[in-house]
Amino acid sequence: MLDWITNVISRMGYLGITLLMVLENFFPPVPEEIVMPLAGFTVQRGELNFLFVVLAGTTGTVLGAIIWYHVGKLVGEKRLRKWVDKHGKWIGLSGEDIDKSKRWFAKYGGIVVFFGRFIPGIRTYISIPAGLEGMALLPFVLYSSAGTFLWIGILTYAGYVLGQNYQLVEKFLSSASTVFFVLGFVCFGIWVMYRRHKQKQKAKR
User: Where do transmembrane segments lie in this chain (predicted)?
Assistant: First the structure.
């Protein structure tokens, strides 16, 4: 996979980086933690321009995010409510929770989309609730682009600084992703138990 990514960047340059970052949104074996640091290493060798590399990576990532945004819109609130009414009780979800999430996302959606771009395991799929909750496309693209530009810039610069050791970026972020996943899983479990306990108390009343 690494050889293939290297060949794409070497042969196609900025366009190859853009295409790889679009693909990264849908095909996890093509990680941005390898693509962008490798592109940064290419910048160090004088083959590409740093700013254009970051712009190419940002463009590809945002294009993929827009596709996931429309997936959220396609699912729609009606289908989600139907699923929640049928299965939501098992994880403590209700139609009232959907209403709350809509209000919350309407108020803080831009911040969530921006900072979500920095969190491993979340950055790709944060686009779905944005589309689901009806966040306007233009603000979504602006917040996504701003967060993505910073994150892609960090990855590219790390590869530029590390040079041939650019793969250390992926190793570090893989460990960080594991920590984030475990913490997220634990928090989700606690939240589910809290919701079910709250629903039982409400039912007793």
Answer: 12-30, 50-71, 140-160, 172-194
Angle at 188 between CA 185 and CA 144, to 5 degrees: 85
The answer to whether residues 159 and 39 touch, using CB atoms and an 8 Å cutoff, is yes
Q: In this predicted model, what pLDDT tens digit does every residue of 109-130 receive, in sequence order?
A: 788 888 878 776 667 777 878 8
Residues in the chain: 205
Total domains present in the chain: 1
Q: Residue 133, SS3? A: coil
* 27, 31, 36, 45, 137 from 1: Cα distances, Å: 12, 10, 14, 21, 34
What is the predicted pLDDT for the residue at 118?
A: 77
Token pair 């475990």 in the structure block, residue: 182
Residues 158, 37 contacting (CB under 8 angstroms) = yes
Which residue would you say has higher pLDDT here, 173 or 25? Answer: 25
Contact 53, 43 (CB under 8 A): yes
User: CA nearest 120: which of 68, 165, 179?
Assistant: 179
Q: Which two tokens stand for residue 79?
A: 């289908």
pTM: 0.69
